[in-house]
């Protein structure tokens, strides 16, 4: 029997993005699960001396749970890689691609997968070309209903579902509050699902897809993080053949974008059973209401066991 050797793990949580509080919750939940599995865990909130502290401490592995630009745009991950310390999750270059929703959509579309028609529009273009004429052209190309969202970001912050043309101007303003580029996307009717993809060292696999049914009809920030505002079904309630296609699509997109260890791929499944790619999450939430823990539990494994296996996979790749 192999002797159990605990890992020294640093969890990065907090940061200064709009998703700071969610990041702190994710970090605490992750640390609790890993500690419960017998590992030594320290949670660190990034600060000016972070890189020096990491080098001096030299843990076995770093697990970033920094949602938003602080952790997901690839910059910090690339800097961590310069220390030589292994980390869980996508490398900096892959994270930068997936963090940009328009870029990820282009890569996915070119690979032959369905993703809603969209236009990415910078704040400067919106202003310089005149809001009125820009909105007219947008609505001519992409009639409502639409989804307007920041081109980077998560937790549904700055996201608006536009059911009529009159709602588009306000939706653009809300998206620009969180990013300099807004993504205006056709809304696909169907079942919203999220697929967690993990790789414990033997190749990426999909965990049971989680079906999302927000009671308000919109999977907003509040619906994501306030218990009782959304119904979740894991596995998703759909035909086994469709479910298999959804999960295989998620794994393919995870690999296509160069992601590692853990990702969450969000999709809409239309009435014909076609999965439409919405976005990829390189550092998905691990809070008590997040989708990754639900998928892990639906798979029959414990959070601590899966998280520990992912940490060991990161160490083995170093």
UniProtKB/TrEMBL annotation:
Mg(2+) 2 binds at residues 279, 281. Pathway: Cell wall biogenesis; peptidoglycan biosynthesis. Its cofactor is Mg(2+); Mn(2+). Binds 2 magnesium or manganese ions per subunit. It is an enzyme of class 6 (ligase). The active site is at residues 19, 155, 290. GO terms for cellular component: cytoplasm. Keywords: ATP-binding, Cell shape, Cell wall biogenesis/degradation, Cytoplasm, Ligase, Magnesium, Manganese, Metal-binding, Nucleotide-binding, Peptidoglycan synthesis. One of its GO terms (molecular function) is D-alanine-D-alanine ligase activity. Its EC number is 6.3.2.4. SUPFAM superfamilies: Glutathione synthetase ATP-binding domain-like, PreATP-grasp domain. It catalyses: 2 D-alanine + ATP = D-alanyl-D-alanine + ADP + phosphate + H(+). It comes from the Bacteria. InterPro entries: ATP-grasp, ATP_grasp_subdomain_1, D_ala_D_ala, Dala_Dala_lig_C, PreATP-grasp_dom_sf. It is found in: Cytoplasm. It holds the Pfam family Dala_Dala_lig_C. Gene3D superfamilies: 3.40.50.20, ATP-grasp fold, A domain, ATP-grasp fold, B domain. One of its GO terms (biological process) is cell wall organization. Its main location: cytoplasm. Mg(2+) 1 binds at residues 266, 279. Cell wall formation. Belongs to the D-alanine--D-alanine ligase family. PANTHER family: D-ALANINE--D-ALANINE LIGASE, D-ALANINE--D-ALANINE LIGASE B. NCBIfam families: PRK01372.1. This is D-alanine--D-alanine ligase. It comes from Cryobacterium psychrotolerans. The lineage of its organism: Bacteria, Bacillati, Actinomycetota, Actinomycetes, Micrococcales.
